[in-house]
């Protein structure tokens, strides 16, 4: 491997072109981490993936406005929303690391949508891990309140996918 930087004292020499290529591979492959090892030299490149949420519809405002009893609620940050979703009693979490699919094939309608009634055992999403499609099913009957992931999104172990109440 070619080195762009040279140093004395046996310190690792870094191939900046390789690091750039690894970073591009992270972005193009929607990966969160990549590691390369060559002998005793090891390079790890990581990035934090943005998490998207589908917001539940807001309740309708009352027709009669009364005096304000307290200050308006402060919106939750993305991290607070993620913790709230993870702790929700109806959260259906990913049992593995993989890629989530909201439908059975490209162009097909999603398995479920917000507001839909589901029965226990009904497929909510599919998580692909190592080329194996794993259906994630509803643990109980209820209504889909939130879908917390997007189609073809990488997911982590124990990440909330859907909220069923």
What top-tier CATH class of the largest domain fits best?
Mainly Beta
**Helical content (DSSP H or I, runs of 4+):** 10-25%
The CATH superfamily of the largest domain turns out to be RNA polymerase II/Efflux pump adaptor protein, barrel-sandwich hybrid domain
Total number of beta strands: 10
Distance between the termini: 55 Å
The Cα radius of gyration reads: 22 Å
- Give me the strand/helix succession: HEEHEEEEEEEE
Give an overview of the whole structure.
This protein is α+β, with helices and mostly antiparallel strands and 165 residues long. It has two domains: 16-46, no CATH class; 79-164, RNA polymerase II/Efflux pump adaptor protein, barrel-sandwich hybrid domain (OB fold (Dihydrolipoamide Acetyltransferase, E2P), Beta Barrel). Helices cover 14% and strands 29% of the residues. It is built from two helices and ten strands, in the order αββαββββββββ. A four-stranded antiparallel β-sheet has the order 3-10-8-5, with helices on one face. It has a four-stranded antiparallel β-sheet with strand order 7-6-4-9, with no helix packed on it. It has a two-stranded antiparallel ribbon with strand order 1-2. It is elongated and about 60 Å long.
Give the tags:
165 residues; alpha+beta; OB fold (Dihydrolipoamide Acetyltransferase, E2P); 2 domains; 4-stranded antiparallel β-sheet; 14% helix; disordered N terminus
């Amino acid at each position: 491997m070619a080195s762009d930087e040279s140093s004395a004292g046996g310190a690792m020499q870094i191939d900046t072109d390789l690091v750039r290529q690894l970073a591009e591979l992270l972005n193009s492959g929607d990966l969160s981490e990549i590691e390369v090892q060559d002998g005793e030299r090891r390079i790890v490149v990581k990035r934090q993936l943005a998490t998207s949420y589908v917001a539940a519809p807001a309740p309708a405002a009352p027709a009669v406005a009364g005096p304000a009893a307290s200050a308006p609620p402060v919106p939750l940050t993305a991290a607070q929303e993620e913790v709230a979703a993870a702790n929700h009693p109806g959260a259906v979490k990913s049992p593995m690391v993989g890629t989530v699919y909201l439908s059975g094939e490209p162009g097909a309608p999603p398995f479920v949508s917000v507001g839909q009634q589901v029965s226990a055992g009904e497929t909510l999403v599919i998580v692909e891990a190592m080329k194996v499609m794993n259906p994630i099913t509803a643990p109980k009957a209820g209504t889909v309140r939130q879908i917390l992931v997007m189609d073809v999104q990488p997911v982590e172990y124990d990440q909330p996918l859907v909220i069923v109440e």
